[in-house]
Design a protein that fits this description.
Length: 353
């Protein structure tokens, strides 16, 4: 039997008010049915499943948008032309690209051509123009200045899978000042045509630099090859020089290799400095006739120096070729703060051509 919650009087089961004090009778608590109880228990799991589904769908959309699933095919050519030019100052600046430098006689007044291509894939919401190119030409006093900049349009997409290549063809008739700077990518330089290089400056942050100068090349001022994290290679095969020139090869964390072959008499001395902070420095030197060499090393406490020589003064640095000082000489300094220096030097008196 129910009782009044105020005065305690016993009440009839169907009473709505206490017949003694008039207080309203509180409704009796109801017991949930099994289906109601089950519904309350299942509300949270259903909501959790919906939330997980929404997050999974969002993750799929993000993955599709940033991961490289959209194919890329890009190609653009530019030509730098100017009449009556005897000097070309050329600069290539790229964030991500492989740069190939070649020499070839070009028609008419063409001095250089660039063909930039991009292949691979990128996110579906990336720009339809994956590469941004800018070209600038200016001719002053028979000197053409030509600057090319190559940038990825979508700088923040770290998941793109694009291979960018810039093929640079230079007419060899004009004297050349060439600068190439890339953030990531190879730089390949090969002077297999008769060309006069005033200065050559090749730099990248990460990647390989490989430069070859041949007997058809004349170097007038300087050569600078530098990488932060990568490798720098110079292949020196009987080029000409006009006067004394500096050649600098440098890697912060990586390897430096200089392969030098010289029999033909030079008109000056070549001062070569090859160095790395952490890594290896390798010198392969083959000189003949009237070409001499002096090799010095600078090594840190955690560096080693290995020397194999023929025709030089000793097996310890500094070492001189048996004819040094000669009429023309390579004055070489090799430096490794932490790492290894390897020298393979050969001097053959032979017949001076």
């Amino acid at each position: 039997m129910p009782y009044c919650r105020k005065c305690g009087t016993e009440l009839d089961p169907n009473s709505k008010f206490c017949h003694d004090c008039g207080t309203e009778v509180a409704p009796a608590p109801t017991t949930p049915t099994p289906s109601q109880a089950q519904s309350k228990k299942t509300k949270f799991p259903i909501a959790g499943v919906i939330l997980i589904a929404i997050l999974a769908f969002a993750a799929i959309i993000v993955a599709i948008s940033i991961f490289p699933t959209n194919p890329v095919s890009f190609s653009q050519t530019d030509v730098a032309s100017s009449p009556n030019v005897n000097s070309l100052n050329m600069t290539i600046i790229a964030d991500v690209a492989k740069a190939n430098v070649m020499f070839k006689e070009l028609p008419g007044n063409q001095r250089a051509t660039t063909n930039t291509t991009a292949t691979g894939s990128q996110g579906i919401f990336s720009s339809d123009q994956p590469i941004s190119l800018s070209f600038k030409e200016e001719t002053t006093d028979q000197t053409l200045t030509y600057t090319v900049e190559i940038r990825k349009t979508d700088q923040w997409n770290l998941f793109s899978n694009m291979q960018v290549t810039c093929d640079l063809v230079i007419d060899p008739t004009a004297e050349l000042n060439l600068t190439i700077r890339t953030t990531t990518g190879e730089i390949l330089f090969n002077s297999d045509q008769t060309v006069k290089i005033q200065s050559l400056n090749l730099r990248n942050t990460a990647g390989t630099i490989d430069a070859t100068v041949t007997e058809k090349t004349t170097i007038a001022k300087s050569v600078q090859i530098e990488t932060t994290a990568g490798s720098a290679h110079l292949h020196w095969n009987e080029p000409n020089v006009t006067g004394n020139i500096p050649v600098n090869l440098r890697a912060t964390a990586g390897s430096v290799t200089a392969t030098i072959a010289q029999e033909k008499q030079l008109s000056g001395n070549v001062t070569l400095k090859a160095e790395t902070t952490t890594g290896e420095v390798d010198l392969a030197l083959d000189i003949r006739g009237g070409v001499g060499a002096k090799i010095e090393t600078e090594s840190g406490a955690f560096s080693t120096v290995d020397i194999d020589q023929t025709g030089f003064s000793s097996n310890n640095a500094p070492l001189n070729s048996n004819n040094c000082p000669a009429e023309s000489n390579f004055l070489i300094t090799l430096k490794a703060t932490t790492g290894r220096i390897h020298i393979d030097a050969n001097y053959d008196p032979g017949i001076n051509n």
